[in-house]
Amino acid sequence: MSNYPAKELIKNFFSVLAGVIIALAILISLSAFLLFADIIPTANGKPNEQDLLVAEISFAISIIIASISAGYSTAKISTRQNWLYIIIAGAVFLTFLWYTNEFDFGFSDTWRYSFFLLVLPCTLLGGYFGLRKKNAD
Description:
With 137 residues, this protein is mainly alpha-helical. Helix content is 77%, strand content 0%. The protein contains 4 helices and no strands. The longest helix has 31 residues, at 6-36. The protein starts with 5 loop residues before the first helix and ends with a helix.
């Protein structure tokens, strides 16, 4: 017999899926807010350096919030081997951001790579907070 029942495996799979979906929902909503508030420049206008810097920092903050929420929700839902599933959720979210150009608002490559470097540590930080909360309950 297996030490890891199928019910737990399915629950852990859905914990990763829930973490990634929550992160995408937060990222899309914050990006939409930044677009509608004219913080992130559109393709029509040529922003100056100050506006572009504000947009890059605002988008970095939204990625941090989305990554922390992904790790937190994955940690709260998963049953065993919590850190493994938190890392998987961060890797799936990072892969999604890497292979899609939906969140490419004309930022330079340096900023795009720094966004990618933020995802996994922030997901681990959210997972740490989620595990602390889960163990306290």
